[in-house]
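Two entries, shown back to back:
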Amino acid sequence: MKIDFQTFVLSLASSAMVHLGRVPDPSGQGTQSNLEMARQTVDILAMLRDKTHGNLDPSESALMERVLHDLRLAFVEESRKAAS
């Protein structure tokens, strides 16, 4: 299977969702939150967006913005839960 940019972005997003405890770990260990790893993955996606600025087609750019927005919201929600 050939990997494309959108698949790569979605793979990173899925990893962040696992670290946020929003989806089960693929290893079968249930859900576990690791906010530091989630933050690192979101930061990697933001860096990737910045480094590819002007080189993405409209659908890739829209996906990147949507994924970052959704992950940042989820991160804030999970951070608030952890602080409670």
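entry 2 starts here
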Amino acid sequence: MKKERNSSIEMLRILAMLGIVIMHTNGAVMEHASGTGFAWTQIENGIFNAGVSIFVLISGYFGIRRSTQKLIELESTVILYAVLSALVGCYFGKASILSIIKAFIPVSTNCYWFISCYILLMIFSPYINRAINSMSELQHRQLLLLMSAVFLVAPTVIYYSVLGGGGKNVINMLLLYFLGSYIKKYSLDERFDKKSLLKILIATTALNVLLNSLISIATGGKPHIPFARDCSVFIVIEATVLMMFFMKVEFHSDFINRVAKHVFAVYLFEGALRQIVQNIVFDYSIYEGEWYWPLVNIAVALIAMVGCMSINVLFQPTLNLFRKIALKIMGTIIKKLKINLSITNV
């Protein structure tokens, strides 16, 4: 009998994406935030910037399997939404014709840094997974400690990262993938109870927000979030603890599982949809200086999420046709070049 998917993890995906959209919606406020806006910027970044790390940890926990079909499906979806987003940007004067051209090769042009890194992980996943399976627990732990020291602890302590980009790169994602696989392989999540995980989460998040606030005040009052970056040890601890906590909460919901399938589309199109809302429906930026801006911020993020998911449902026939064409073209190329590639998992 096939095991049912744990809806708790799907719920975590949904919440993580909501947090990412909230951050993106609040992005402009960081330039001039004060009062409630300042406090909200520190809090939402200190909590929600763990979203991307959560997605990669989950991928490491369950493992990525390379598949030509999956790669084509992923690429076709990214191209569709990248082109649509570029067209929306051009319409509102916030993008150029060049952005449309780049949208047809979104992975190579890094239109979405996370997707480009994820596809790289998928391409090299057979070798990464083989390395994980061949390592002893000691070797796996030593690798994690070394990578964490260089790519997490050092940037947290001295601010500067040897890779730059605040942790938004494939090496930091590889570190998280190794961490997720370690948690699964050696049942690290079973060594903590839910109460302990909550204590760690609260303490780490509070310290994250406090340190960012102190740094911001010391440097002139403008919101500054060095401890809430993707290369911050605080963010990785928060993401790890959240994933392990949700692993311990098991339930099944067909509705949540169906909704979670559309989370990817939210990441790809929420920025364009917010442009449409802000320019045509209502300009929510006029509320950025108000005490109730956090509520408006959350409401706009929810609208963007529901809107993107609804659009993705409507686009399924188009996406399916696009994928069939892409698979047929790829199959023809493979056949002509006589390359023995499998469309199933490697």
